[in-house]
Amino acid sequence: MKNMTSSEVRQMFLDFFKSKGHKIEPSQSLVPVNDPTLLWINSGVATLKKYFDGSVIPENPRLTNAQKAIRTNDIENVGKTARHHTMFEMLGNFSIGDYFREEAIAYGWEMLTSPEWFDFPADKLYITYYPDDKDTFNRWVEVGVDASHLVPIEDNFWEIGAGPSGPDTEIFFDRGEEYDPEHVGLKLLAEDIENDRYIEIWNIVLSQFNANPDIPRSEYPELPQKNIDTGMGLERMVCIIQGGKTNFDTDLFLPIIREIEKLSGKTYSPDAENMSFKVIADHIRSLSFAIGDGALPGNEGRGYVLRRLLRRAVMHGKKLGIQGKFLASLVPTVAKIMQSYYPEVAEKQDFIMQIIDREEETFNRTIDAGQKLIDELLEKLKAEGKTTIEGKDIFRLYDTYGFPVELTEELAEDEGFKIDHAGFEAEMKAQQERARAAVVKGGSMGVQNETLQSIEVASRFLYEAPKSVEARLLVAVKGDELVDTATGEAQLVFDQTPFYAEMGGQVADHGVIKNAAGKVVANVTDVQHAPHGQNLHAVEILSTLKVGDSYTLEIDQERRNGVVKNHTATHLLHAALHNTVGDHALQAGSLNEVDFLRFDFTHFAQVTKEELEAIERQVNEVIWQSLAVETIETDVETAKSMGAMALFGEKYGKVVRVVKIGDYSVELCGGTHTATTSEIGLFKIVKEEGIGSGVRRIIAVTGQKAYEAFKDSEAVLNEVATAVKAPQAAQVLAKVNSLQEELKGLQKENESMAAKLAASQSEEVFKNVQTAAGTSFIASQVSVSDANGLRSLADLWKQKELSDVLVLVAKIGEKVSLLVASKSADIKAGNLIKELAPFIDGRGGGKPDMAMAGGSNSGGIQELLDNVASKLG
């Protein structure tokens, strides 16, 4: 077995499969594109599903990749076990309808055992297989595996609902009896007992059946196109090759751990528990990569995952004694380790550090808030005579504020409390089950459509075509069958077409199909790409169409014009965003419709009014310059050398289209555009909003729609001018400012009158001082015009030593307002008001010294006042 670095292991895997005719697919973003089944890219095959379900046919049916992935279902095990990670790399080789079992198993054995490659000792490798899959057993024996090293496992069948499925075979490395102190041996593998001796390094999925949940597995039909999907965990391979006790004792993690040692002053040892070192090292990798790919910490979805990882890492830093912010300082080390294959972390290092630093600073303030919550909880439990903190409360502190159970336990024990560990574990289990239910392992795949996959005719899209083109009908699909004549609804492929197929955020063209006599014989309602890339026209047929006949394809030019204006404006918007808010504003989706454009991008804050105005102004200035929109066809590397910006989630072939707008914008794009920017006419932003953690959305309009938007704004301004009696629209602002000043004066006058009224009432209200359980209090119904009147009375009360507690209630219109103030260290106003508010069907809260509540039941006022004494007692 060779001594190798992690970079060498990754490269050797890719080189081996390249030598077997595989195309190396680059690692894709951790943020899934157009896949609602996944929160994160969680496997090597997740980005290739379109090939496996046959919706797209790859140029090369043999693929290999090293794909970064994130899984957080078992986050609690990170640091506790030798091999759990939140972010990991999956090495894989894939066959899309090309080779199958024979070659896949032979490749696996050759790569692992050949002296030319990894040179693993064959006697250290054990293989599991699905018991009914005798072909796999036989094939392993044929390549040289001893039958005693083949273990049948009933769970070795990969299935995720309807769609591609099949048996799988897993390869394990035996680390020896040193990791099997009880000498259990192969039983550990056969009975799936958790152990550190037999380490799974590779799984080969033989995707050969079309799963159907309604029939027994034995009756699953064979797939028309059988596929191979494999996965090898880089971290595990490196651990075995480098002789690490755990995955963390390798060059993928040790440089990070060494930095943590410097920060904490503590020493890491592979033989000690060292959970905190491992958690921090794992989590900072996930944070660095995910933020670099456009995800940002937040309160939901991916953002919540990142926030939880960051907070968990920070708390483990505190356990190691690290003072102050520290996580961001680890990012350069992550970038250096991964530089050879993932240069993007280093390229975005400053931005990643900025986000982590800011989030950690926010969390430090949150910790202080959480500490107060624990104090309040313990105080409440003391008052109730309880001695145990319930599991649901521990979980809330953990889940919402990132407090580890150990910290809660430590603080609780200092106050003489116990912890409901069983209740906490039950809450944790429920959360994990919810998380697992929300994510399908590997992500769902569509069922292969054999008919569409079989269409291999040549067809071309005419970018620069006139609005109508003569074309020959090559293929007609009705339902799932190829037909020679088509009626009703069908899907058509022509030898050439001017109709754009939906892609890259640009919607499809609509239009009509005419016969030789010029009669409309079909309406084109949608255009999508067929598996082999042809433009597939969805049509409503008015007169029978025949394969082989020629027709005139005519796009709706007015619709196309609206779409291309919005598409070209999207490129200008993207550039303006970079110029205004920063290069981190990465595209996270777009839609170029007929009447508007929608652009989603990563950004950690709301775009300010001033920034939006600057963006809008900049885009319009470029429009007014009437810059030429050039389209250049070239290869990817040349495009990048031109400074072309690749759009989020797009994959590009050997020949790419570069859309260049003067010196202002250069992007890779397969869409259609205006000839010059002046054709856009006008650009207007109509909305900016957040749509998820760290993702913002701008909706804008162009041309006529932009003009109409400006006219609508003008109409509103004119209405305001009329309402405030401004002779001209230009005088509206001055008039509004004048009215505001007038309003402020009236408010001050009102407050002055309220204060006088309060003062006149105070002498009578403050006379009646009562006592309950050693606490003096004043409780009274008063007459005020609003809640400010209650506050004025409370301010007067605070200035005098009249009582420990003040309770005031007032009927204001149809509502009831309640105020509680306290000078007593034993009585907290926020707690007392929660006891009293129900009498008026209300609710409220506040600080220990003053709280307010609103209610709707004025009939309960007297009962509330009568019960103040009992609530104090």
UniProtKB/TrEMBL annotation:
Cross-referenced NCBIfam families: alaS (TIGR00344)
Entry-linked Gene3D superfamilies: 2.40.30.130, 3.10.310.40, 3.30.54.20, 6.10.250.550, Bira Bifunctional Protein, Domain 2 (3.30.930.10), Threonyl-trna Synthetase, Chain A, domain 2 (3.30.980.10)
Occurrences of domain Alanyl-transfer RNA synthetases family profile (ranges): 4-712
Coiled coil: 729-763
Cofactor note: Binds 1 zinc ion per subunit.
EC number: 6.1.1.7
Catalytic activity entry: tRNA(Ala) + L-alanine + ATP = L-alanyl-tRNA(Ala) + AMP + diphosphate
Role, per record: Catalyzes the attachment of alanine to tRNA(Ala) in a two-step reaction: alanine is first activated by ATP to form Ala-AMP and then transferred to the acceptor end of tRNA(Ala). Also edits incorrectly charged Ser-tRNA(Ala) and Gly-tRNA(Ala) via its editing domain.
GO biological process: alanyl-tRNA aminoacylation
Keywords: Aminoacyl-tRNA synthetase, ATP-binding, Coiled coil, Cytoplasm, Ligase, Metal-binding, Nucleotide-binding, Protein biosynthesis, RNA-binding, tRNA-binding, Zinc
Cofactor(s) needed: Zn(2+)
Family label: Belongs to the class-II aminoacyl-tRNA synthetase family.
Superkingdom in the source lineage: Bacteria
Subcellular location: Cytoplasm
InterPro entries hit by this protein: aa-tRNA-synth_II/BPL/LPL, Ala-tRNA-lgiase_IIc, Ala-tRNA-ligase_IIc_anticod-bd, Ala-tRNA-synth_IIc_core, Ala-tRNA-synth_IIc_N, Ala-tRNA_ligase, Ala_tRNA_ligase_euk/bac, DHHA1_dom
Domain comment in the entry: Consists of three domains; the N-terminal catalytic domain, the editing domain and the C-terminal C-Ala domain. The editing domain removes incorrectly charged amino acids, while the C-Ala domain, along with tRNA(Ala), serves as a bridge to cooperatively bring together the editing and aminoacylation centers thus stimulating deacylation of misacylated tRNAs.
Binding site for Zn(2+): 567, 571, 669, 673
Predominant location category: cytoplasm
Organism, scientific name: Lactococcus termiticola
Record's protein name: Alanine--tRNA ligase
